[in-house]
Amino acid sequence: MIFKRKLLLAVLPFAFTLSSAAHALDIKFAEIHPAGYPTVVAEQNMGKKLEAASNGEITFKMFAGGVLGSEKEVIEQAQIGAVQMTRVSLGIVGPVVPDVNVFNMPFVFRDHDHMRKIIDGEIGQEILDKITNSEFNLVALAWMDGGTRSLYTKKPVRKIEDLKGMKIRVQGNPLFLDMMNAMGGNGIAMDTGEIFSALQTGVIDGAENNPPTLLEHNHFQSAKYFTLTGHLILPEPVVMSKTTWDKLTPEQQTLVKKVAREAQMEERALWDAKSAASEEKLKAAGVEFIEVDKKPFYDATAPVREKYGAQYADLMKRIADVQ
Ligand code: BDP
């Protein structure tokens, strides 16, 4: 009997270690985009790698389609560790970490390739570090590509004057409201999930985004005109709750960084394919793609770059210098 009890006592801590190791960390990943979207696919692949490389110590579950809430809500949950990882637009990070607004400025990147070079290089890492080193309680790990954003509206915008007075949805960031107002529109901030019905009911006359979002969030059902202003090219950070990060071993932290960076590179190929396919589908569904002179939009938004960019003049010069 005594022997048996000793054995039990000896085995117990071992059993505990085993079972806690088997479920050391469960990652819930929140995404506003639906299943099959480039970011979702790349993040799921990242999760599979994490599970495999951690011998089951880390589990990963994707919650796509906004089921855990809007990006703002999800960020709040990540801050307290209730959601472990997410990807959000940099747009909604700006009001909390103003330094990231350098990337949120209209026409700050020459084109899509320029943005990609920046996020892959040292400036991209610096902006991730700004998020990590802020009071946000998040660790910013990598960038997803969110393409180039243009205007879509219920009535055509063929020149900047046509935008006058139109109510256009933007993300909740004062910079974007200023940007839309500077272009002559009437900026209205709301969450992604509210756009569809706001378009249908006429609360807004349009929004601005990339072709995959116009398609996959069904905004094209009301907004049939896509005016290629290309005014914003917003990269999208993948973040982990610092509360979660602190529970990882140094080896696991290195692993998370590595697979997140791999997801950054993988998503880009998915993005290009999805953008091309979306364009085809949108055109087939009757959406008119309107080529427009970008210069008036660029000129109109100069005061916005001045207002938000003056204090980051050096950084903006470094961005412009990247070829
Ligand atoms: C999409 C971004 C997503 C944003 C959305 C928006 O990928 O993160 O939530 O735009 O504007 O392009 O709300």
TrEMBL record:
Signal sequence interval, chain numbering: 1-24
Biological process annotations from GO: transmembrane transport
GO molecular function, one term: carbohydrate binding
UniProt xrefs under CDD domains: PBP2_TRAP_SBP_like_3
GO cellular component terms listed in the entry, alphabetical order: outer membrane-bounded periplasmic space
One Pfam short name: DctP
InterPro entries referenced in this protein's UniProt entry, alphabetically: DctP_fam, TRAP_DctP, TRAP_DctP_sf
Keyword Signal: yes
UniProt keyword annotations, A-Z: Signal
Protein name: Solute-binding protein
Organism expressing this protein natively: Pseudomonas reidholzensis
